[in-house]
């Protein structure tokens, strides 16, 4: 059987490290920081890790909201969406993930665009 993306990413601990780094980047990114001001970052890191693990084929259960519900009323722009993906790519690269794996994650994230943008 083929490896899952979850396995190629190295499992839960390595995924948690990527999500934590990406959220720290969002909080420091001028294009995104205003969105995350006053939010419970540790909780978002936990939910983000669950979401990423489950979505990549891991055994975790995601207990957060749907992508549409979580971003409803925020009217997120294409520029913000790209900035978020750029941060995640930087986190993956910073942690030594192979370009093929980074590309796969970008593809998955991009597929969620319609659920996240301008809701
Ligand atoms: C494919 C891209 C994205 C994914 C996979 C994603 C994933 C998530 C997840 C899993 C949550 C937690 C859900 C919950 O609270 O129940 C969340 C919340 C949130 N996301 Fe995203 N997100 C994406 C794009 C973005 C972008 C581009 C922004 C900012 C411009 C953003 C800003 C936020 C904020 C501010 C929250 C917290 C909402 C609140 O608690 O009020 N997200 N996101």
TrEMBL record:
InterPro entries: Globin-like_sf, Globin/Proto, Globin_bac-like_CS, Hemoglobin_trunc. Its cofactor is heme. Keywords: Heme, Iron, Metal-binding, Transport. It holds the Pfam family Bac_globin. Gene3D superfamilies: Globins (1.10.490.10). This is Group 1 truncated hemoglobin. It comes from Piscinibacter gummiphilus.
